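Input/output pair, single chain:
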Amino acid sequence: MASFGRAQASLASFTNENTAAIININLDFTLFRCDAKPEFLPIGSALSPRRREEAENGPIHRTACTLGFLFSDTLPDTPALHKAYGRRVSEILAQPNINPQGTASDGPFQSFVGADCTSIWAAATSSDASIAVHLLACMLARAFDSKTATSIWFEIIQERKQQVNQLLKENRLVHPYTIMASKQEITRSELGTWDTSARAWLRRADESKKLEKHQFAIIVENINLPYTATGTTYSKVMTTWTKSMEVLNNLLANNPQQACDRAVLLAISSWHLHPKLIVFQDKTTEVDFKDQLFPSSAVLTLGLEYQLQAGGSGIRWSLALSHLRYYGDPVAVRSNEEMSRVTMRQFSLVALGSIFRLWDLEQRGIVDAIDWLDALGDIISSNIQEEDIEINWVRFFCSAAKSFHDHDKAREDVNLRLVTFGWRRASNLFGINRGSHLPFFGLCNPYVLGALREEDPINTGFTYLRGLLSTPNFNGRQVLVSFTMDTPYGLYCELVTAIPVPSSSPLGKSQHHRWLYFDNPRNLTPQESIILDQRQKAIHNMGESCKIISNPVDVPRIPLSSQEIGRADLRLWPNLPSVLKLDSEAERLFRVVTSDAKNTTKRGFSTWIGLEIFSDLVTQHVRSRSNEISSIQSSIPVIRQFDRPRSIVEYLRSIILPGNQLKRKRSADNIDDAQYYIYSMDNTRAAHSWMTRQNKPSRQFLFSIVALQIATMLYDQLPGATVSLRVVETELHNASWLPDSFTEDRGNQSSGPIWLSTTSASDWLRQMTRPEAFGCQLTDVLALCTEDSIFVAGIMLRDPSSSSTKGPEIRHLVGSIGHAGVVFLVSPINTRVRQPDYNALSVQHKEYDGKRENKFGSVSLHLSFTEWKMPLDWANTGEIDQQVFLLESILSVMNGGQWIGDIDVLEIEKTPIDVFETDCKGDCEAGEIDEYVQKMELISLDTWEELLDPPPAVAIFRAKTNWAARLAAVSILSRRGDSHSILIIGGTELCWKCLVSHYAYPEPHLPQIVID
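Output:
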């Protein structure tokens, strides 16, 4: 190192006359290292040995050195900024939840776990200029996606190299290190790795400073400051970069600053250094983040007004890149500083906004609508039953509304912005053909709520239809409502007046009337008479006039005149009751209208309108009343205090559940036959069919909701995982990440994601990211890696005997494998396993002594990568940098440093393997089995050689509680095609009597290899 320093001093004394001799020097910058400044030392200690080696001696160190030397002459001196940044990074890394340490439970990913600060340590051990280059990497990672950021890096490097060459041609003085750096080739792959490390670090730092991040995001959203840099991409980037460093360095040196450029805001967000702000907008606001790194008097003033361009949604960094595509004109790109990725719970708020748009809700009513859904959710939660899965889609929106409110005003403001974003932009999230929807599921209609208060299911329908038909424009004698249902005794019917009929007495009050009858062409049987009498008594107890039509001649019927034959929508009532007569008429024709025009049987509820007054005005009036919505604010207390909350749950179930699934079973406490038929048949559904006839979600809508529920279940397993808001441009029911088994041909879409357990985690990993481009190419995925996250198929990190009961298990690890973009780890097609040798002394196969032990304590799993890496981002033809890759990954089994073999654990998911669990401790009565157990020959497998060369007898692989060894053994045997002969012992106890009894038929036997 000393000799290298003398070479540096010597080179510094050169003039451009000596340049010709230097130009051809191919200096390996991985050889150059400097001691990190004290503020950065904790970073090196926080790195895993593998990452530290990469940062100090690997390609990323070469990248840091080369970039630092290349740009060093253009950068300002900012020692205070470097010092503060080192302290901030060290402070963040000290948090265990931000920088978790890999443990044995992380299996082969142990060395990859933790915050990726490889690029920071590489810069800290290179030069001050390299630290500045890392700061630019964070700014570009914040502002642009990985592909664009890599292209920007490539472009500014090329421009800087041209600058250096031009200076040399002009015989200008250039530092020798800069000259040598300009001669180095930095590949796009190396730049992608550099960007990936910075991007991964940014995600972890954001998590640590999420409160400051959200608060600062709100300020940025409301400040109209432009990016003032002009010119080429290079000049814009350099101006933004250097100006930001100077402002932050001055603040840290206790020099108040005024920002007139949005670049400073980008730097604050990217470097997680938050000075005190004074914001001049409508009013002067002081924002103190209480960042201890800044002196108390170091204040950044914001507030120069800037007029947005017409139609602009915000101020963003705009660059033109000539190195984004292989062919074509330079591509204009804009930064994505705004909130473009959210958690799945936040995305549920976006979905909530979409449903509000579907309801034609105005923006000013959004908060009230959220409060209403919150109240509905409380009602549902306290009255739901296990079988009420049909309203899970409603509960999803209620849960989203519940998550909206937050004690933190700033976070609640962000939540509101997410809802309004969905309201504006996610209009097709639930499909183009969404069916028909009543706002608030129809529960803000006063006639629906009035009907749901009725305990009697037939009265529920009558109350609703009476509400729709009540108007002074109709004559009460001309408008009736009927209910019809099948019973073992024939067709049971009830007819009621829709509008109270005036009394014949001058002093009498208007009242409703009801008639009961069986639609039979014969006289009533004794049982039918009993049923009608019981029902009439119940109606009298309700305070309503009721009569029984016992003579079949007086029963309303379909008219039989030759002119009206086949008119099932007409009813003739002969011998019209006197209370309904107008003048001296003896009979009347009614037009029958049902909730469903396809209901030719006229079962359920119908409206009967006198034929002489029937017109479209009647149906228009009914439709208008059914679409009425009460004030949302006034509906909230009504919902909260509703006296029959269970009826609301039943109503919501009926929106998508077929009527034949709503029947009740007869219970022992039915008081009579009439009550049994009234309460046991599909009368609730009949009433609800009227209430929900304009509330029929399409299959696309329901499939979209289920897709959203599936995604939520998966993301619940992945803390910190986020989703891009670009999803709002898709229709969820067509989402390409759904399993192949999820199609619109499935029989019962209302059943929700109960089928998830049939889909393996590796299939889900394959389909989570843009499978439309490569779905046909992938079959097995070990893990998905992107930025600071590794999503691992659960089978890789658990005992082979355990299984997930909540669908596909995916583990989320905080870490990075150091590859750019989205990387799918896949196993080689044919994995290798060590072959048994021919040493007769290496295998003993001792008799099993009955002890359950772990003989494989030195086993470990290790992950490595081959050179095979295939890009899969074929959809973006012509773009230089790809974003999705397959990376061949080898999972090796090592025993005390000795290689045993390479395994593909996903083989276990392809072939069922027996797992035996028992709570018995050997004290059971086994009868003849006991004798078989005593005679049984069992062999111990205590070494890998003994497993690879098994005996022709039942053998016990002794690796109790060692999940890695058990997983490796099962994988090796499965790959060899021996899955059928494996038994895995699960649980904590093992009873040989119970085990043998389990395998006693057709004759006592045991699998050849038992994994204990």
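Residues 154 and 187 are 8 Å apart (CA to CA). The two ends are 55 Å apart (CA to CA).
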